[in-house]
């Protein structure tokens, strides 16, 4: 080392030891901001040489801005890429609303009731000790699934527009077919043989009410929301359906010769059928009255 450099170094060390304040402070060590209009050197001075392991770092030009994919504070930032077919380009799947299912369990049960109508008609006109039992069993299974599909749809949130449309259609097909069958072939050894009109009158009332309500609901669907809510199913309609199912089950079971109480089932079946016809007419009047009040406002 030259003597002049050693002399200057020793003088600096002595001055630093004698001074009460440090010669260098963090404030003084800050790099001054570049002066506008002057270009900073991009290469190291010729008299300074980097070690061999770090050579070439200083000669590279400085970055003009933050590195790609890095923020100004040094934290990593990623650009959001729109998802394609529910999967983003980063690989993370995104939630996509699933389309509504058409064939849910309640809808399958409803379709089964519609498909059971031809079997009900076939077994009703068959001869044999098992024919009446099969007819009663088919109708009873349809009545149970009528309650079951609605319960499953509410509890498991499986209701669909197609199921809501098909459920009343299946009920009307099964009830209308059973009423027509009982009217065409009444029991001979019972009170129905003396008065065959006993089943005809409530059957006409029930079927006529169902046709009228179908037309009213179709008209209400084209009106405003208040009219549509006025024809929603109420408790009278539910009691009417339950009474119909019990009455028709008893009347079909009264045709089964294997039952020891065959003749005792006719009278309660006819009484419940008239009760269901009365509830059907009453509920129709309530629906029409609700619609009339809305139209008068």
SSE arrangement:
Elements lengths: L2 H16 L86 H20 L6 H25 L5 H24 L12 H25 L3 H6 L4 H19 L12 H31 L1
Helix pairs in contact: 2-3, 2-4, 3-7, 4-5, 4-7, 5-8, 7-8
Question: What features would you describe in this structure?
Answer:
With 297 residues, the chain is mainly alpha-helical. The chain has helices at 3-18, 105-124, 131-155, 161-184, 197-221, 225-230, 235-253, 266-296. It is elongated and about 140 Å long. Residues 53-77 have low confidence and may be disordered.
Helix content: 55-70%
Question: What is the averaged pLDDT score?
Answer: 76
C-alpha geometry: elongated
Report the order of strands and helices: HHHHHHHH
Keywords:
single chain; 297 residues; 8 helices
């Amino acid at each position: 080392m030259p003597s002049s450099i050693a002399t200057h170094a020793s003088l600096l060390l002595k001055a630093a030891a004698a001074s009460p304040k440090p010669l260098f402070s963090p404030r003084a060590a800050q790099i001054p901001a570049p002066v506008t209009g002057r270009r900073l050197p991009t290469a190291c001075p010729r008299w300074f040489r980097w070690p061999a392991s770090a050579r070439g770092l200083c000669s590279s030009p400085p970055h003009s801005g933050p590195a790609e994919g890095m923020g100004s504070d040094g934290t990593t930032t990623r650009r959001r890429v729109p998802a394609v077919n529910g999967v983003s380009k980063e690989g993370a799947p995104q939630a996509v609303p699933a389309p509504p299912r058409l064939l849910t369990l309640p809808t399958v049960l409803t379709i089964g009731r519609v498909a059971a109508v031809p079997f009900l008609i076939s077994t009703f006109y068959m001869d044999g000790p098992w024919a009446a039992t099969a007819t009663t069993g088919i109708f009873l299974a349809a009545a149970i699934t009528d309650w079951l599909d609605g319960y499953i749809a509410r509890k498991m949130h499986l209701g669909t527009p197609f199921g809501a449309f098909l459920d009343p259609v299946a009920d009307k097909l099964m009830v209308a077919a059973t009423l027509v069958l009982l009217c065409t072939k009444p029991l001979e050894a019972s009170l129905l043989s003396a008065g065959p009109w006993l089943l005809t009158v409530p059957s006409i009332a029930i079927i006529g009410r169902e046709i009228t309500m179908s037309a009213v609901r179709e008209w209400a669907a084209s009106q405003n929301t208040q009219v549509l809510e006025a024809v929603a199913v109420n408790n009278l309609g539910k009691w009417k359906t339950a009474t119909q199912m019990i009455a028709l089950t008893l009347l079909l079971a009264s045709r089964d010769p294997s039952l020891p109480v065959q003749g005792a089932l006719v009278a309660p079946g006819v009484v419940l059928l008239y009760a269901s016809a009365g509830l059907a007419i009453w509920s129709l009047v309530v629906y029409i009255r609700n619609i009339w009040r809305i139209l008068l406002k």
